[in-house]
Design a protein that fits this description.
Layout lengths: L1 H21 L2 H7 L7 E6 L5 H16 L3 E6 L4 H13 L4 E4 L8 H9 L4 E4 L9 E7 L1 H15 L9 E6 L6 H20 L2 E2 L7 H4 L6 H15 L8 E4 L2 H14 L6 E2 L6 H8 L5 E4 L2 H16 L21 E4 L2 E4 L3 H6 L11
Parallel strand pairs: 1-2, 1-3, 3-4, 4-5, 5-11, 6-7, 6-8, 8-9
Antiparallel strand pairs: 10-12
The structure holds beta-D-glucopyranose (BGC).
The site of beta-D-glucopyranose has 13 residues, from loops.
């Protein structure tokens, strides 16, 4: 039934695309109110992580389909490169910027130039801090990502009822990424009470955000930090029960380290993004869960926002209180993140067309 519905939807989408593609006036007018026009700059942080490639290509495709020209750039996680890419976008006639920042605090100066030229800015996925040039923010509910990871550990260890104590280690993301603090904050709001009462023990003693942060969300950095933690605390056979990892790139580093250095019973490992390598690890029982953030959903919401602004209107938002970037609250659209594990990945990722079965083999 579901498959039938899906194939009907796909067929309808194909027909709609063909009609728009053929450019027949009345057909395209009936598909969308009016075609957009103008150039949109899309600045993405890096190609190293699968999710940003998907974010970028989904947005590019959907913006083009809506009638816009697109300047899509990736900055190899290098702040100076991203600043100069944005500068080029401003000087080459982009009329709106969509930016997933590398470091949320480093774009103030270049965005002053955007503001001078009245170029609206949408912060994509990561909030851009301390700049009043930011018009809107579109993201997944970052705090909810963290609470879902924390709740998962709480339930799997049955922290309410079990006596414990259980050993846990914590690996979060880049300190320059505002999201990392929300992921960490959401998870710690669930787990910290158990750490305080001694039911959860962090043997390494590494708990505060700055200590458990991972520069650039690097897999290698997470791996070498975990190597050191294992050799100092778990090499003697001490059981590690859980590792809170804020995302999949760090979870991959932790998993690699455990495979090389840890001989005990496999711990619970959390993640986020449903990157292909991590979904494979979930299927193989090496990672317990991930958070699925469907980049198609975020991309289409942002295209809707771009389209509304370009046509002189206001972008749709659903949150006007959570994200203060230091210059005031930025009106935001928060998409809902979804829990994923080995039991539901097929329905979530394969049936929805996000990945093929072959991608995950
Ligand atoms: C994103 C995550 C991603 C991380 C590393 C965060 O800002 O929200 O989805 O895993 O950056 O790129």
């Amino acid at each position: 039934m579901k498959r039938k519905l899906l194939s009907m939807l796909l067929a309808a989408t194909m027909v709609a695309t063909m009609l728009v593609g053929c450019g027949s006036g009345s057909a395209s007018e009936s598909a969308s109110a009016s075609a957009g026009s103008g150039k949109i700059g899309v600045a993405m942080p890096t190609k190293d992580l699968q999710r940003w490639n998907q974010d970028g290509s989904n947005m590019e495709a959907q913006l083009k389909e809506a009638g816009y020209e697109v300047d899509l750039q990736y900055a190899s996680n290098d702040i100076a490169t991203q600043v100069s890419q944005i500068e080029n976008m401003i000087n080459s006639g982009c009329q709106l910027l969509v930016i997933a920042s590398i470091d949320g605090d480093s774009l103030g100066t270049v965005l002053d130039q955007a503001k001078e030229k009245n170029i609206p800015v949408i912060a994509y996925d990561r909030l851009i801090m301390n700049s009043d040039a930011v018009s809107y923010y579109a993201t997944f509910d970052n705090y909810m990502v963290g609470t879902k990871q924390g709740e998962y550990i709480k339930e799997k260890l049955d922290l309410e009822n079990a006596a414990g104590p259980f050993n846990i280690e914590i690996v979060t993301g880049d300190p320059g990424d505002n999201n990392a603090r929300y992921f960490y904050g959401g998870a710690m709001d669930v787990l910290k009470p158990y750490i305080d009462e001694g039911k959860l023990v962090v043997k390494s003693g590494q708990i505060d955000f700055e200590t458990v942060a991972t520069a650039n969300w690097s897999t290698e950095t997470a791996q070498s930090r975990m190597d050191a933690i294992i050799s100092a605390n778990y090499a003697d056979g001490t059981k590690l029960d859980a590792v809170l990892c804020s995302n999949d790139s760090t979870a991959l580093g932790v998993t690699n380290s455990l495979e090389a250095n840890y001989t005990g019973e496999w711990p619970i490992i959390t993640g986020q993004d449903c990157d292909i390598a991590n979904v494979k690890n979930m299927i193989a029982g090496k990672q317990s869960m991930s958070i699925f953030k469907d980049t198609r959903t975020l991309a289409s919401k942002v295209v809707e926002m771009v389209d509304a602004i370009m046509k002189g209107g206001e972008a749709p938002v659903n949150d006007k209180e959570t994200y203060d970037n230091g210059t005031g609250v930025i009106p935001s659209y928060l998409c809902e993140p979804v829990f994923a594990d080995a039991n539901n990945y097929k329905e979530l990722l394969v049936d929805s067309g996000y990945y093929t079965e072959a991608d995950l083999q």
